[in-house]
Amino acid sequence: MIQIKTSEEIALMRSAGLIVADALAAMRAAVAPGVSTQDLDAIAERVIRDAGAVPSFLGYRGFPKTVCASINDEIVHGIPSRKRVLAQGDVISLDCGAIYHGYHGDSAISVAVGAVAPEVVALLAVTEASMWAGLSRALVGGRLTDISHAVEASVRSHSHPYGIVDHYGGHGIGTEMHQDPHVLNFGRPGRGPRLVPGLCLAIEPMVTLGDPATVELDDGWTVVTKDGSFAAHFEHTVAITADGPLITTAHDGGRAGLTEYDVSVAI
Ligand code: MG
Ligand code: MG
Q1: Closest ligand (CA of 68)
Q2: How many degrees, rounded to 5, is the angle at CA 192 between CA 246 and CA 4?
Q3: Taking a C-beta distance cutoff of 8 angstroms, is the pair 184, 145 a contact?
Q4: Mean pLDDT to the nearest integer, 229-258
Q5: How far is the CA of 177 from the centre of ligand 2 (A)?
Q6: 169 CA distance to ligand 1 centroid (A)?
Q7: CA distances (Å), 79 to each of 133, 153, 195, in order?
Q8: What does the pLDDT look like over 114-138, one tens digit per residue?
C-alpha cells in the first residue's frame, strides 16, 4: 500500500533524514586506508542513537549491523566487519537508515578511499548524477516511471556502457523502511502511480562499470557483480510536496544537487 504523509509526518521524515545525513557525513569523514567497516558502523550507530533515533537496518530481516558497507565489486548489503579494512584505491558504498518517532530516513553514498582509478571516479560521478536526475522528477503531477526513466537516461547519456543493476531498486518509505511502490532505475516514462504531495520515495541507482548481473554471496546478504567489476550506489529519500521535492536526507534539502534542474526545492 502506498502511504501518503501529512505535513506533520513529513516533518518527522525530515528529522529522521537529517540524522541519517549526519551519520553518513561522520562516516565519510572517517573513511581512510586502515579503517575497518566495523569502525564505520560504530560511528553511524553512535550518531543515530545520540540523536534519539534507532538504526533501522539493525535486526531488519536479521541483518546484524547498523549500516551496509559494500566495497569495490560489492554492490549493496555488505556486512560490516573488523576484518574488512579499507585500502587505498577502494570504493565503499555506505547505506544507512534511521527511525525517528516512527518515521524512516534511508540514504547511501559511495566514497573513494584515497586516489582511485579515473574510470572509478567517473563511475561515482555518473551514479550520483543519475540519482539527482531521478530526484528532479519527483514532482507533483508526474508519474512514478518519470523518475525511473530519468535515472536511466542520465546513465545512458555517457559513452561508457555502464550497467544498471535491475534486480534492486528504490521504494516507498514512511512508517516502514520499504513500502510500495518499487522504483525501477530504468524504463519508459509516464507510467505507474501518480506523484502526489505526501508521497515519500527512496531513489537509489546502483551502477556498474561492467555487466550489471549480480550474485548474492553465501552470507545471505552481500550482493556482488558477477563479472567482478566495480559498482557504485547512491540513495536519497525524497518527500514530494506541492512546493517541490524535499530531499529529507540531504542537509540542504537537495538545493545543491538539484540546482541544474528547473525545479523549486521545498526546504
Ligand atoms: Mg538504503
Ligand atoms: Mg533504500
Answers
A1: 1
A2: 45
A3: yes
A4: 97
A5: 7
A6: 10
A7: 29, 31, 34
A8: 999 999 999 999 999 999 999 999 9
| 219: pLDDT strictly greater than 80 | yes
Beta-strand pair 170-172/163-164: unpaired
Dig out the grid coordinates for 222 from the structure: 552481500
Identity of residue 67 = V
**Burial class of 89 by CB neighbour count within 10 A (0 to 12, 13 to 18, 19+):** middle
pLDDT in tens, 39-54: 999 999 999 999 999 9
| 106 Cα to the center of ligand 2, angstroms | 6
Q: Would you say 137 and 147 are in contact if contact means Cβ atoms under 8 Å apart?
A: yes
Per-residue pLDDT of 190-206, as tens digits, reads 999 999 999 999 999 99
C-alpha cell at 53: 533515533
For ligand 2, a single-atom ion, which residues have Cβ within 5 Å? 106, 202
Q: Measure 138 CA to ligand 2 centroid, in angstroms.
A: 16
Work out the burial of residue 163: count CB atoms within 10 Å of its CB; fewer than 13 is exposed, 13-18 middle, 19 or more buried. buried
- Measured distance CA(121)–CA(44) in Å, rounded: 25
pLDDT digit string, tens, across residues 255-264 = 999 999 988 8
Nearest ligand for residue 202 CA? 2
- pTM summary value: 0.97
3-state secondary structure of 184: coil
Place 266 in a pLDDT band, splitting at 50, 70 and 90: confident
